[in-house]
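Same chain as my last thread, 116 residues:
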Amino acid sequence: MATISSHVLDSVIGDHAGGLRIQCYQINSPTDRNLLFDVVASGEGRIAEEIKVADSSSVELVFQSAEYFSSRGMSEQGIQIMPEVVVRLALPDSSAKYHIPVMLSPHSYSIWWSGV
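reply #2:
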């Protein structure tokens, strides 16, 4: 089984983004997705989920940024032009670990792959 993990940081307050909702979908075709997990990040802004996929699968992580910032009173008068951050990943090895750190603010984000 592959492991998808992330550590999300809230760059507005300079701390962990605990309570952020994150979903993962397996991409079967351009119009067909299968929900693999729907979780809430720990108080330290972390998730680690095992998923069963075939080699060379593609997945999509969806970070619910508007929901997170709105719950903290950080949306600007209800305006949120990036309601979610979507990251698509290729998983060449179905037994590897994939760690995707994210720095998040209401109007920007930065992601990277920290290796397997």
